[in-house]
Structure formats: C-alpha cells, structure tokens
Sequence to fold (661 residues):
Amino acid sequence: MFKKILIANRGEIACRVIKTAKKMGVKTVAVYSDADADALHVEMADEAVHIGPPAAAESYLIAEKILQAAIDTGAEAIHPGYGFLSERASFVEAVQKAGLTFIGPDPKAIEAMGDKITSKKLAAEAGVSTVPGHMGIIKDADEAAKISAEVGYPVMLKASAGGGGKGMRIAYNDEEAREGFISAQNEAKSSFADDRVFIEKFVEEPRHIEIQVLGDKHGNVIYLGERECSIQRRHQKVVEEAPSPFLDEETRAAMGAQSVALSKAVDYCSAGTVEFIVDKHRNFYFLEMNTRLQVEHPVTEYVTGIDLVEQMLRVAYGEKLVMAQDDVKLTGWAVENRVYAEDPFRGFLPSIGRLSRYIPPKETENVRVDTGVYEGAEISMFYDPMIAKLVTYGSTRMEAIELQRRALDEYYIRGIAHNIPFLSALMAHPRFQSGDMTTNFIAEEYPDGFLGGALSENVKEALIVAATFINAVEQSRASQVEGQISTPAGPQDQSWVIGVDDESIRTRIVPLQDSAEVAIGNMRIEIVTSWLPGMPVMQANIGGRDIAIEVDKNPLGWTLTTDGVSKEIRVLGEKASQLLELMPEKVAPDTSKFLLCPMPGLVVSVSVVEGEEVKAGQSLAVVEAMKMENILRAEKDGIVKSVSASAGESLSVDAVILEFE
Fold:
C-alpha cells in the first residue's frame, strides 16, 4: 500500500480521506490556501503545503502547485476528493507524467464521462437509456431558444463540464431559454473554465436516483446499490438516502446492469457514480457519470459496509476487488443531510463569517458527522458553503429519519446563518416521510420560500414547558448569594405568563424529587432534564417524549429551537405581562424603494440605468456569491432613481444597489 498520499482538496472531503488513510496506516499531505491556513484538514494531516491565495483559481485549481507539493513531500499518489481538479483529465495525465499515481479513474474515462455531451453519446452507443435533447455546441442565446423550442419545453440547459448544480437552468419559454443560457454559460466559465452548454428535455415529476459503481484495473466492475437524491434546491442535492424508497428489485438490477456496462465501456477503475432521472413509471434515463467520489457516498458506505475511500486507494495501488456482485448486500437504511452556511429564511442566500459556536451532535455507531470546520473557524466567500454532512443509519427508513431529526436538533451553530431549521422541517414533512418525492419537492411544498417548520401542538407544548423550566432555573440561580445558605438551585414553585406569538399562556412549575411538573391550565406535564444555565442544548424528556431543544437568551425570555421550529418565547411575571401589552409596536423601516444586496458578494452586472422604467420580474442586477450567480429582479413596476453599485464591486449584506423613485 502507499506510504504517503497527498489530498488535492479542502474541507470535509479532505478530512474524510485523511481519516481512512490514517486507519490504513497511510501518511497524508494537505494543501491549503491563505484562507485555509487554520483549516481542520491542515491540522489533521501529517504534513501541509501552502499553495497560494484564497481564490481557488489561484490555488486549488493550479495543477502545477499541487504536483510540486506532492513531489516536494515525497507523496506517491494524489487523491482529488471531489470538485476542483477531480474530473480534469489533463491533471491526471500530469500526475502520471510526474511518476505519481492518481487515486481515481484513467484520463480516458474522465474525458469520456466528465464531458456531459460526449458521455451521452457513449451511453447511447452502450445501450443505456438517455434523455432526448441536443448534444451539440450552442453558439449563442438565440440559438439556445431555437433549439429549446425544437426539443420541446420545458428544457434543461446544462454546462457540459458542470456539476454540483452549477451551470444549470430550467426554461419554460424562449425568454427563459435565452436568459438561462447566458447564466448557465457564465457560471460554467467561472466554475469550470469551460462555457459549453447543452440542452435536454426536462422530465417532469422526476426522481433523481444514482448508482454507485466500483471497478478495478483488472476489468472487474460492480455496483453497490442506489442512492435517492430527489430532494434538491436549484439542482443542488440537499437530502440523500440509500436505498431508494421508490425502486423495486427489478428496476434496481436493470439500472445497475446498465451502469456496469457503461463503466466497462470506458475501462472504468475506481469509485464512480452513474446518475439517472426516473419517472413515475420507473422508466429511467441516463443523466451523467461522475468520475469521482460523490458528496453523498456515506449513505452507501452505511448500507453496504464498504469504505469507498479505502477501495479507491486499493484499486489505485493495483489490487483486485475482493468482493463480487453477489457479495453486495444492502442492509438497513441511511439518510444524509447537507448542512450549509445559508439562510433558508432569506431565500437560502449564502452566509459567511466566523463560527462563534459550533457543537455538532455526538457521533455514534448510527450517527456520523463529516465536517471540515470547528468552533472559531471561518466560512469563506471563496468556497462551497457546506459546513458538514450529517448521516444517520437505522434498521428501517423511519428509524434513520427519526435519528436525523434528533441529531439535527442537537446541532448548535451560531455566528452565521445555516439551513438546519429547513432540514428539520424536511425530515418532519409527511410527504417526505412517506417517500413520495420528486426533484420538484421543495418548489412544490415551499412555493413562497421557507417560513419555518410547522408548529404542531406537541412542539408548542414542549416549548412552553421548556421555557417555564429554563426561566425558573435561571431565576433560582440568580437568587443565590455566594457564601450564604439560600434556597436550592433548582426550579422553585413559581407562576409565569408565557408568550408564544400573540398568545399568552399562564403556567406554574412545581419541583419534584428528580424532575419538575409544569401546569398549563388543567394539564400537568412532567419534565426530566439535567439542563443547567449556560448549556446551549437542553436534552429532556417532556411528557414522556425525548427531545433536544436549542436554548438562546433574548430580552424578554428565550429563543427555543426544535424540529425545524424556532420561537421567541416570552417569559414574564403577571405585572410585566400587563405592562408589555401597553407598549407601542415597533415599526420596521421601509426599504421598498431600494434594491439591497441580499448577501455578501461580487456584482457581476447591473442591467438598468438611472431614469429607466422597469417592470415587475425584470432582471436588475446579478450578484455572485460562493460560485453561484443570483439574479435580482424587480418586485414591482417602477422607475430607477439612482444606481449605487457597478460590476466588479464587492458588496456587504443590505448594501444599496439602486433606488427607485
């Protein structure tokens, strides 16, 4: 086996590869940019080499720097992770020319499958079912609209060298096709240095299901079951699971057989993924092949018991696969959620900044956290906003989902916005729990954006009980006088007025021997917990139900978060509650006449000028953040009074881009 390898990546995937390498006794070398000098993958590796400025185009995407780092440290092989140089055939050729081993497939397979246009042609030749579309190069937006109309709307415009949801747009008419082509082309050029875009028919009511393949250098290829990846936002996967709740054995076998046939057609060796779009009748169509490790690979590892990173290293070293197709058994169920630095309450806009608090759920045999950050680390504007992947495993699908819900509630992140409330709401959604999903799930279930999880009566009751207990403990603690004998530090027999939204509920807490009871009207609900002031998460049993609740102080009480619901709970005495009702309501400032930058980012373009009349829905500006372009549109008709920002300018949140009359 290799004695030392270099990981040409960063973040959670670099940390993930390092973990397996250490388990195998292989030393590791990390590379890092200026922005990642204090990153977790740098700390975990045996050695680390600085490779340049923060921008990926000046560091992680410079093949010469990566190769020189490997040569200088005596690394024998390079693992690319995913993204960056992982699917660039020229990089593999350079690695091999330098006398090193690339831990992944050969350049031929990467070149054939990494290009979406070429891969679709090869798939068709190999007898793999493909989606109708136009695989040729498209020269401009007008031609994109013409071809789209010929294919038949709706269509998908996709970057040929794309991945991770970048360089993809759906168009339902000529205008959207033109606009989508330009945006997809710009994103593709920025992210992949390749602006080619192709068009294919968009299958409505689709499911996104992919097959994990594994091949060696001796002609052996097997498939390791499937992953359901239908819960997506802007074509970016959010939730993945294995196996799929939709496939039957016959469809699974057919998809697996086609994936193996395609892999063998390009002499594929390493871990790879063949992605399909599947309609409601279980007809499946080839989308693309990712010639690398996938973000969602942990769910496959859970249900098969196979460490995919270990297999990649062994295959690259020249070893034969030790398992045959008949040896692959799918056992249990695994679910993965991608935890992102983005604000679901503001249209999922990226969030950057420092993690002032970062407490992930405790890892166990059935709970896994793949992350590349730590408390105090910074989420940079230069890279993907993923914080971690949270993976849970159970003997059944519902068991895995329930473990996810509990683990998400235990996740405590402060300093930046994050999508955990949204993920919790997804896990609790009846439609998701039933397995009834398509890639349109989020758009259909949250047409007006995410406004928070549903406040069920059970959750509301738990928050009221928790707030009463927390406040009683805090008040009791505050009454203690150092050095004097006083009342016990636990909750005392007290009454409160609890405010939830516009509702006021009177509660009373009664301490018991090892717990407490909270009276709400005629109900008496027991709470058992070891929570103490200062603990960010309350682990409790409330009314016989185990629950985890995030706890934050606010001026009038507590902000409590659980199950995708975050509520500001007022906890006041009777007199204070009466006085609060007399307070005037604070009115938020009117910003309707301004177009404000919704997140920190770079202005790509401003498409209007002073004095111009604009219509609702018209594009006003494009702002790029974390490698994604965001089109800002007019919410209503108006006239531009002034323009305050220009292309190339970096803006902070709520910076004024333009003002209307």
Notes: The radius of gyration is 27 Å. Confidence is low (pLDDT under 50) at residues 484-489.
